Amino acid sequence: MLYLLVILLAIILGVLFGTFKRKKLDISYIRLEKVWLAFLAFGIQTITRIFSMKGVSFLVKYSWLTQGVVFVLLFVALWYNRKHLGLWIIALGASLNALVMMVNGGRMPVSLEKLVKVDMPEFIELIKSGADNKHVVMSEATKLNFLADIFYLPGFLGKGAYVLSIGDYIVAAGLFIFVFGMVSGSYKKHEEVKI
Fold first, then answer.
1. Does position 73 have pLDDT exceeding 80, yes or no?
2. Please, which residues have CB within 8 angstroms of residue 113's CB and are 6 or more apart in sequence?
3. Residue 64 near residue 105 (C-beta atoms within 8 A)
4. CA gap 152, 17 in Å, rounded
5. What is the top-level taxon of the source organism (predicted)?
6. Is residue 137 classed as helix, strand or coil in its secondary structure?
7. Could you give the angle at the alpha carbon of 32 between the alpha carbons of 193 and 71, nearest 5°?
8. Is 13 exposed, middle or buried, given 0-12, 13-18 or 19+ CB atoms closer than 10 A?
9. Helix, strand, coil % (nearest 5) of the chain?
10. Cβ–Cβ under 8 Å, residues 135 and 127
11. Which residues pair with 137 in a beta bridge?
């Protein structure tokens, strides 16, 4: 939900900014490489999550491996597109999420206290049962809890959204910058980040 709202906001503000600057909407100059790697990463994550919820327990046991593959594919795709500033920020947020997940066996610790506030009892039961290959109940045994899913969106924004991490917010900021830059035409002038 957060990422969808960020994309919509970036599109609306980008179009308004582009109109104000008298720039015609044109994203044909944006060249993204190896995007299929990101789609493959999300596909693997989605499929393994569905099967783990259906009771395929070895996916939970080896979630560090599947999540590791997902992050490697995602980072390779981001590296190929490193000329876009927003993608650097997305990579930073994804790195924080990858770090906390990998030190916790491939699963993101999540605060049950905060999860109760977004009213998702089915998700709470799923995590408590250990059937979710992406999340684990946050406790004193989990590591780097300050980077875990400990934040929630209040009000209607939180409905249907999981609890979020610092990395998720950084990814959202990068996503906003990337989409806004594409839609507003800002990348025409500042298309590359110098390394």
1. yes
2. none
3. yes
4. 30
5. Bacteria
6. strand
7. 85
8. middle
9. 65, 5, 30
10. yes
11. 110
Which of 187, 143, 153, 155 lies closest to 30, judged by CA? Answer: 187
- Alpha carbons 5 and 17: distance in angstroms, whole number: 18
Q: How far apart are CA 90 and CA 94, in angstroms?
A: 6
Q: What is the pLDDT of residues 25-49, one digit of tens each?
A: 556 666 788 989 999 998 998 888 7
Q: Is the pLDDT of residue 169 over 70?
A: yes
Q: Is 167 helix (H, G, I), strand (E, B) or coil?
A: helix
* CA R_g for the chain: 18
Q: For the chain, give the mean pLDDT.
A: 82
Residue 97's H or E segment, with its range, is helix 85-102
Please state, in angstroms and rounded to a whole number, the distance separating the CA atoms of residues 89 and 129. 34
- Residue entry with tokens 């582009």: 18
Two structure tokens written together for 142: 């989990």
Q: In Å, what is the CA distance from 147 to each residue of 35, 90, 116? A: 27, 15, 19
